[in-house]
Amino acid sequence: MDVEVKKEKETYLKDHEVKELIKRSQDGDQSARDTIVQKNMRLVWSVVQRFLNRGYDPDDLFQIGSIGLLKSVDKFDLSYDVKFSTYAVPMIIGEIQRFIRDDGTVKVSRSLKELSNKIRKAKDELSKQYGRTPTVGEISEHLDIPPEDIVLAQEAARTPSSIHETVYENDGDPITLLDQIDDGNEGKWFDKIALQEAIRELDERERLIVYLRYYKDQTQSEVATRLGISQVQVSRLEKKILLQMKEQMDI
């Protein structure tokens, strides 16, 4: 399945196109529902990869994740000003986590338990420091751990049924999972998934250019020397790559 998903070139839908398909699906349009699943296969697979090496067949996890995707389509409230992927990812995670918990054959790994304990202690410390429950972003910075790893560790112990479920109340004001995930960077860890998918769409030379320019901080001239082309060619390729990635990430 991994190979099939990666080989297939997909056209990315704009946010308003996704929401129109969701509306049609919620009104009973099966073709719209099928299109949403097809266009979000990579999103499901990105989540599935985090649950590999636990003794389950990837195809089985993909099918379970797809159920979570469909549930997110059915439950998505079009009145919310939030991207569908931001809503869908926790639903997909939750569905897979429930499957693993209910199956009972695979326990939460020791490392995940240890991380969960670290997070709990960090939350206690930061709660005393800030006088409120810390966000995932604040815990991430405190522990120097990626936000998505923190969310997954917390999901291992408890899976909210919805990203809009109240997880804490502050003087009567409900705080949802979406509020907790938000670190002030518009759901940075969800965007990270989209970025990874956009990079996978690039060919080998394009990925190398992105790696050298943005991960190794090399100049266009240095990249040109490495690739055996001119600096002007690197500049043109870089502009083309960035435009392609922006279109795929809908930004």
UniProtKB/TrEMBL annotation:
Residues 60-73, 219-245 form the RNA polymerase sigma-70 domain. One of its GO terms (biological process) is sporulation resulting in formation of a cellular spore. The keyword DNA-binding applies. Belongs to the sigma-70 factor family. Residues 105-132 form a coiled coil. Pfam families: Sigma70_r2, Sigma70_r3, Sigma70_r4. InterPro entries: RNA_pol_sigma-70_dom, RNA_pol_sigma-B/F/G, RNA_pol_sigma-F, RNA_pol_sigma70, RNA_pol_sigma70_r2, RNA_pol_sigma70_r3, RNA_pol_sigma70_r4, RNA_pol_sigma_r2. Keywords: Coiled coil, DNA-binding, Sigma factor, Sporulation, Transcription, Transcription regulation. GO terms for molecular function: DNA binding; sigma factor activity. The keyword Coiled coil applies. This is RNA polymerase sigma factor. CDD domains: Sigma70_r4. Sigma factors are initiation factors that promote the attachment of RNA polymerase to specific initiation sites and are then released.
